[in-house]
Amino acid sequence: WIGLLFRSWSLCFSQAAEGTMVRNIQKVLCVAEKNDAARGIADILSNSRMRRREGFSRFNKIYECQYHMLGQNVAVVMTSVSGHLLAQDFKIPFRKWHSCNPLVLFDAEIETFCPENYMDIKRTLEREVQQCQALVIWTDCDREGENIGFEIINVCKAVKPSLQVFRARFSEITPGAIRTACENLTQPNQNISDAVDVRQELDLRIGAAFTRFQTLRFQKLFPNVLAEQLISYGSCQFPTLGFVVERFKAIQAFVPELFYKIKVTHDHEEGTVDFSWKRNRLFNHTACLVLYQMCMEDPVATVVEIGSRPRSKWRPLPLDTVELEKLASRKLKINAKETMKIAEKLYTQGYISYPRTETNIFPKDLNLPNLVQLQTQDPHWGAFAQRILDQGGPTPRSGTKSDQAHPPIHPTKYAGNLQGNDQRLYEFIVRHFLACCSQDAKGQETTVEIDIANERFVAHGLMILARNYLDVYPYEKWSDKVIPVYERGSRFQPTTVEMTDGETSPPQLLTEADLISLMEKHGIGTDATHAEHIETIKSRMYVGLTPEQRFLPGELGMGLVEGYDAMGYEMSKPDLRAELEADLKLICEGRKEKSVVLREQIQKYKRVFIEAVAKAKKLDEALSQYFGEVTHVAQEEEIYPAMPDPVRKCPQCNSDMVLKTKKNGGHGGGICHVWIPARSKAVPSVCPIITQLWVNMRVNNLTF
Ligand SMILES: *[C@@H]1O[C@H](CO)[C@@H](O)[C@H](O)[C@H]1NC(C)=O
Ligand SMILES: *[C@@H]1O[C@H](CO)[C@@H](O)[C@H](O)[C@H]1NC(C)=O
Ligand SMILES: *[C@@H]1O[C@H](CO)[C@@H](O)[C@H](O)[C@H]1NC(C)=O
């Protein structure tokens, strides 16, 4: 299904600019995602002869040159943004933490604006676009990049509505890729950008509602420990935290079991052969002892079976983002966030291809021999690269995943002057690439099976015949294991026959690589965001790292997950978020509309929120296991001032509703607030859903 899914993604991406009237263009504004990328692209377009001048932002320069583009010679004005140019937030009445009931945030109006520190960049764009007839978007070719592209388009079109707009598509900042992109300008893809808008809006609403609810509540309830603590919620953060807690609890719940086994050894001239029991182990001591005693009655071994077969150790698959993060974390001990930061830098400097990719198959049109050739000059792996070329050229292994947008991560330029982790990561990417283009390691495995009193034991020997890729890939080990020649039918006296015991051991705490694997498996976040979510739960103190760099949940993290679990709501489970991610993919593919996804997802999370608030006592209980008794049950008036007016739409009749306090303090269950239509002076018509929520809150003496 991955193939199917991504095929339509590729359609999104390759929609060409055919039929667009391109005439009378003298000057083209080009905008990249970062200054480094702008400089690199301008350097290529101008053959290193661009002119540089200042923009309003001192971090985002302007580079100028001439280039043949859109069928004519044009003046190119190349500049950049610094990631997203615009931001979203609630409108003023909802922005302050105490301004409204957090439930309102699911429907409150949101506005898009340019933050103060990006105004200079915006002003540069607005000034430069005046003289241009066309705009070419050169942001990174992924979802965020497409969205940033539309931010740039909106800013530019606002001052120049007649502007013609194009999108350059590229996976690396190298002369070949940049020139090809110029010859194949396409249209930006609104659907991909829409998916990002949806994600941003949902993250804002869901994150703000739950974060305010949790933070304000627990700061009040546990003032001694949590008074200053931001207790954030995010629909990716929580399942990520959930994985860490789940593993921790599995370890806590683990009961070790004793097991017993029989072990046979046989010394020879070059060492000792270990024979392992074909039953592996038994959990019944008596049973094991009986078998052991039978062996000991006549401990002579008969060789019953000798096998010999070729064994291969497979060279690595082409590198995608998730593998890069996992391998860098395991083999280089560079964490995912740092890895992606370095990889992005190497990409903008033209050393490697775009590091955010789900593809592990090299496209047919990629010139692999050239890429291998580039590495032959290196003193360490150059000879290996040359050997690949001399022995018939690259023979890349192929995976099964393709996003049809970017090739696997590979080196695009030789770098001999990098330092520190930049160098280590670059070296890893090169070695991985060369290993993948080489051959599997080959060996011959021998198997010897012996019989003692009808119990069978096996030993393996390995002779490595050709190390192949292992010569360039020190991150994996494979070693010879020498065993002497045995003859079928022969008998010998083992050196030892022992009965040993052991204990089953619990699983280990998660490493970062384990955590990324789980996130990927359950669809939490994307390859572009795994590292950020992990960073967030660390910075919120929900989890910490052991000295072995394994994730351990903190008290706050434990309390939150246990509390939400106790509600029966799967907040810390991955399903809710995975559904959201799947919907975002459908938007990109043009198979689901933005507005539909927004409506459905907001409704879904709002229901969860209402329920969570109603059952908030479960959270209090879970947290009080760690932070002591609840010291003070606040009234909601202490936390939230009167609601702004009007505050929300009635989900039943869709009219604006405001919250009113009843004069007599309520009746029956103690309802003292009701929602009434904002403009109606008539008898309050109480919306049943809201009333129910309020009843629950009152009955349980709860607050937001
Ligand atoms: C880009 O344009 C060139 C020349 O115009 C053409 O040969 C090539 O096939 C195009 N590449 C893509 C990926 O469309
Ligand atoms: C252990 O094995 C012995 C001998 O086979 C058997 O009699 C006994 O029932 C087993 N005990 C358990 C707990 O299974
Ligand atoms: C974008 O999505 C809409 C439906 O939401 C679809 O009709 C349209 O074809 C899509 N466009 C592209 C370029 O995929």
From TrEMBL:
What family is reported? Answer: Belongs to the type IA topoisomerase family.
Which InterPro entries would you find in this protein's record?
Answer: Topo_IA, Topo_IA_2, Topo_IA_AS, Topo_IA_cen, Topo_IA_cen_sub1, Topo_IA_cen_sub2, Topo_IA_cen_sub3, Topo_IA_core_domain
List, for all copies, the residue spans of the domain called Topo IA-type catalytic.
Answer: 189-609
Q: What is this protein called?
A: DNA topoisomerase
Which Gene Ontology terms describe the biological processes this protein takes part in?
A: DNA recombination; DNA repair; DNA topological change
What species is this protein from? Podarcis muralis
The organism's superkingdom is given as Eukaryota
Q: So which residues are the signal peptide here?
A: 1-19
- Asked if the keyword Nuclease belongs to this entry, the reply reads no
Q: What is its main location?
A: mitochondrion
What chemistry does it catalyse, as a reaction equation? ATP-independent breakage of single-stranded DNA, followed by passage and rejoining
> What is the stated purpose of this protein?
Introduces a single-strand break via transesterification at a target site in duplex DNA. Releases the supercoiling and torsional tension of DNA introduced during the DNA replication and transcription by transiently cleaving and rejoining one strand of the DNA duplex. The scissile phosphodiester is attacked by the catalytic tyrosine of the enzyme, resulting in the formation of a DNA-(5'-phosphotyrosyl)-enzyme intermediate and the expulsion of a 3'-OH DNA strand.
